[in-house]
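Hi R.,

Here's the chain you asked about this morning:
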Amino acid sequence: MTSISSVYALKYASRPECRASEAFYRYDLYGESDRAIGMDYFFWIAQNDDDSVVIDCGFNPEIGRARHREIEVPPTELLARVGTKPADVKHVVLSHMHFDHVGNTGLFPNATFYMARKELEYWTGPYRDRPNFSWSVAPEEVRHLESLHRDGRLLLVDDDTEIAPGIRTLRYPGHTPGQLVTAVESAGRTVVIASDAAHYYAEIDHDRPFYIFTDMEKLFASYDSLRDMSSRPDVDVVPGHDPLVSRRYAEVEPGCFDLTRQR
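And here is the predicted structure, written out as tokens:
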């Protein structure tokens, strides 16, 4: 894969009714009135003329519906809007095991998948069934990813891994033990797709933890690192669920936001 020419956030669902008190852990500590802040659901794609790397793949419609989430635009339609056929995708990064990030692996029959080793170990280990954690993970999807691993289609990565030229994954634990962020080099800039290492800009800017995490101390350390990166003039850190993303970046097709072009 040669140099990256485009990086898109693809919005497939939303929850405009999501309130700050739902999203942030102990929101009452901040002395602010509760309000609707919304939550958008994205997956991402980095492209050049020859190849594509997809980062996450959204939630399965039935699994999402069981958790009161509905797909608004099918991922296949969003990919078509940016000129990609799922069968042509060779690489898919799975940032972590939560249902809204691993739910459509079957759309990519020719892809190799990548996940942090510590992530798969955690969700096949002794704590995966604890109610505080298990709501976010579908057991059938864990089993499916174990099967992909046995078949050689899911590769386990460690803390800093090159997926393709210009695309690296970095482990940022806290939300989950193996949470990955993906750094994409494009046109002299770096787009850092935080996925759920930071759901909202407020997590990075104001140290406000999202309500789901496995290790708060590591979560704060990840925020520190993301904040350091975002202070660089040549780096854009993009959170995983913030509606502000769709306001900050150019919408080139409905639901398709160019992360190399701010509005």
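One quick note: The chain has a mean pLDDT of 96.

Cheers,
M.
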